[in-house]
Amino acid sequence: MIPKKWTLFANHQNKAGLLSSLFYIVVILLLGIPIWYKTTTPLRHSLPDISSLLVHSQMISNQIEITVVSIGDQQRDQLRNELVDNWKGNFQGNVAFRYAWKVRQLVKEEKQIFVASQSLYQIDRMLDELESHRIKGHLFIYLIPENTITELVSKSVLYGSSRFAYISVKNDELKSEKSNEKPLSEIIVETVETMLEPKRSSKSELLRSEASKAVDTLTFLLNNEIDILINLVMEDVEEAIEFQDSKRFKELKNITRIAFLKQSGIFELIDAKITTQMVYYALPPSFIDSHLANSEKNNRLFKTSSVPQLLNAIESRIVEHDNKQSYLLTVYIPSQSSNSPLFFFEESTGTKSNAIVTPYRGGILVWNDADDFNVGFKSFMRNLIGLNPYENDDYLVKNNFFTKWELDAVIRKVTLLQLAKTLSSLESIEKLLGKVSNIVILEEIATKMHYAVKLSHESMDHLAIANLEGAFNLSCKAYKASETAFFDPSLLALLYFPDDQKYAVYFPLFLPVSLPLIASIHHIIRSMNK
Amino acid sequence: MDVRVLFAFFFIANAFEKTVAVSAKVERFFEGKRHTNNWAVLVCSSRYWFNYRHVANVLSIYRSVKRLGIPDNRIILMLADDMPCNSRNPKPGTVFNNAHHHINVYGDDVEVDYRGYEVTVQNFIRLLTGRVNEGTPRSKQLLTDEGSNILIYLTGHGGEGFLKFQDSEEITSVELSDAFEQMYQKRRYNEILLITETCQAESMASKLYSPNILGIGSSKIGEDSLSHHGDPTIGVYVIDRYTYYALEFLEKVSINSSKSLSDFFSICPKRVCISTVTVRKDLFKRDPKNVPLTDFFGNVPEVKLLDLSSAHKVSIRNETDDRRDSERSFTLYSHNVIKHKWKKIDPFPVLTY
Known about the structure:
By secondary structure, chain A is α/β, with parallel strands linked by helices. Chain A has helices spanning about 5-10, 15-40, 50-60, 75-85, 110-115, 120-130, 185-195, 215-220, 235-240, 245-265, 285-290, 305-315, 370-385, 405-435, 445-465, 470-485, 500-530; strands spanning about 60-70, 90, 95-105, 140-145, 155-160, 165-170, 225-235, 270-280, 300-305, 325-335, 340-345, 350-355, 355-360, 360-365.
């Protein structure tokens, strides 16, 4: 049965016109509007749940496995109870540490080492050979009876080159030898805290010390790769020609290639590459002389206020690789034959040194004496990863670049910073989508974000079970994923028109089409009403 | 009320409070610092000989920031046309700021990062947001961080709410402000000083909504920004009024100058500029009177002496003892490192027919 109204259409005089207007309506409804909607609405794949990550990040706790080994006959149970009951962790500051104490006697392998070794240096080295003692982030505290080891006589605590610290204690007593008023447990905890966050020494490590800016330098380490660019500037061009055969060049090569890249353990933290280049004619002939303060006898003092000009002059001459970030270390070698040593001089404080650092860029080292490069390069590298430029007095071994516990502490800091940056990147994408409505999120980007969230969660879980290495590997990947997601060029797939322009784009197309359409709709309605 | 509802309400309120506290903490973490490095993005968006003055404008600022210590690798210079080498330039290799040829703003070494048809809206936005295409060299990237103060100088032909690029496209003030918001969200800057030298320049800063940006425009909405004077030897106008006076002012500024930003606001009064210089200060937190000009136009790196007097030497261990260590490398990437990235190519290959 055809409804009455439809027969009306069937009998309609202008059948073709009616059909065409129906066709237009169908095309507009089924094709036009969906296409318009599709092309003006940015494609957005669903984002991961970032708030859960935010909540999780607030509950990061770093579990620290600490083994206290007593060598004498101290009352272990009492010490264990005291540590477990009173020192559960450290929740001050931004990071929470949860201590997992283990108090025990020497095991068989350790006993052999202690019996066989002559000195604490040897013990320190041999203990590090044990596979069980090489876990990242795991700390060992050895309580050594007083006067048994010569190195410990004058000091109550010594920090080893690996993950060990040695505390000298009196026999039969739970008190440390030197400071009678402090209980041993407290000294142990202080030692642990130092090993977790290597403190800056009270001595003047930077001559013009301001608030420590460890976070600044740590941002260098976030990408896990860095190019260290050593620019050699020689005062005497004649000497530069022979430099390649000189003893200094050999020294430079050994320190950077072998001692730093291979032996320092830096590869645990970052993929460092070192490039050395000779910069000829970097400075105008009398540049140095024109910026000298009133010289001391035999020494030239270069004003620190003129360092920016010096840096700019050198940096405009150097060649850089196409990399994300480089640490520029300029090594200035004064002429051996004719000129006196050069130092940087801070006029306001009257201090001088042959090395300066500038945050985010690197530094300048003047190679006056033979050992300057050795000492200077070490200090720069320690400064680069946010450590004190040199070891404190209570370090057992001082001829390494860094101790393993220091490196562990930096790795932990970088892990936490990477997690924080991952979170802030993901959060900022989420916030941006709310503010800038035309951002496109492709499936690939959404996947990367999901991946970053997942890895961050996992990394935090690893921190909670004292697996620093696993946590670091995951946080590196999470950081990378979140960064590539944020900086992906596809996020700029649409330019940011104001919304009204969307209509402007389509309006000229729709207008001529819509005029006859509106006319026929009007016609249809009229026919139906008849 | 149901106990469960009450409990849920309490829980949600508690969680919300926690989240707010956390983000406040994160904000403080990033905001507590002052700036540590300086960058400059200098854009001349117009081409053709009769726009000589726009190139002179941008090179004037380039000259000043470079002289005041921003290194070339932190200056992104975009020049849409090459005036110094234009065949109509009677003195090739020069761009002067006035008809008496006082200052050759082209100088001896200019590093142009984006030139000619590379100066596009897309490239500019990509540069700001950091979303550059893969393989973009470092010199074409703005590698700023939360400690960077950025000077952004735009010159060209503009109208209300847009700046024309290359006679073919324009950037709108909405696009610009959204780009700044993206930079803010990713903490790519500490503070921005945006200077626009175009007609109706005020409008470029009018849509901004991200914090810590100060916008200076050479003219009000509805006003033209005028050129200063012409040079009969080149046949066109040499420089625009606002930048002419800006350069005159900046030439007297030295690295250790105590001039403040608010001094810079009054460099071009209406009687010489003819247009009205506008300043948008509401997004900027500091008082411009207390902001040294060199916080944007210069770069005074923090220099610290490193005391090496009590540092100890590193000793190199015997290599044979350390075979275990020397064979190890950074593990994260070691599985997918491409060992031979570059193929060696024989410069004199033996040809076989």
